[in-house]
Design goal:
Radius of gyration: 17 Å
Order of helices and strands: EHEEEEHEHEHEEEHH
Shape: elongated
Helix content: 25-40%
Structural class: alpha/beta
CATH topology of the domain at 4-138: Rossmann fold
Distance between the termini: 36 Å
CATH architecture of the domain at 4-138: 3-Layer(aba) Sandwich
CATH class of the domain at 4-138: Alpha Beta
Length: 209
């Protein structure tokens, strides 16, 4: 039976590389693979999915705005695939995730993305994927500053007055994957609220296109 998969990892864990390789393997074996990406990601073009490894790119078959609802025609189009892949799935709307869950009754859907933002809070799309996914898999990587497994995304440039999370895709000089210990130790030096054990406010993260 087809399933909905959520494969998550911290920054720099190679999520996009794994997606593009898996998609390539499907196509090399004569299968039809579809690629979906969120509209908010325009780093290298509105429809381009790219990896930090030079030369690894692919044009998406479907680009979704954050408020878009999949139409009957789009779902029918995706159903004809042998597998659907989703890049940056943390930016999906929960309703889109539920639609992909329904799609996975007939077609495997594999989503790649982050679990949480730089404050340690779940993205709305990731929260929905934890609810609807049949299989949840962690993509492991090592912490930027020590030998432990990276589990959190550290923002190196913190604005203490920032109340809402901003979307900065591909900002390697701003975000790094770290273990939980380094997440607190490295952040507390720049963030007085964390230094005093006053954890960030938990406002809902909104994406404005």
């Amino acid at each position: 039976m087809p399933k909905l998969y959520f494969r998550y990892g911290a920054m720099g864990s190679g999520k996009t590389i794994r997606l593009l390789v898996a998609l390539y393997q499907y196509e090399q074996n004569g299968k039809k693979a579809m690629l979906i990406k969120p509209k908010v990601d325009v780093r290298n073009g509105a429809a381009t999915v790219w990896s930090r490894v030079p030369g690894l790119t692919r044009e998406a078959d479907l680009v979704l705005g954050q408020s878009d609802v999949l139409t009957v025609e789009q779902l029918s189009f995706l159903e004809r695939a042998d597998c659907c892949f989703v890049e940056e799935s943390q930016f999906l709307h929960p309703k889109q995730v539920e639609q992909l869950s329904w799609l996975s009754l007939s077609t495997p859907v594999i989503c790649y993305g982050l679990r949480s933002d730089y404050r340690g809070q779940l993205f709305a799309g990731s929260r929905a994927l934890f609810t609807w996914a049949d299989c949840i898999e962690e993509i492991k990587n090592v912490c930027k500053f020590c030998k432990h497994k990276s589990t959190h995304n550290l923002k190196l440039q913190v604005n203490p007055d920032e109340k809402m999370a901003s979307v900065q895709l591909g900002a390697d000089d701003v975000y790094v994957g770290v273990c939980k210990s380094c997440f607190y130790l490295k952040q507390s030096a720049n963030d007085p609220a964390l230094g005093d054990y006053k954890i960030h406010e938990y406002a809902e993260i909104m994406i404005h296109e």
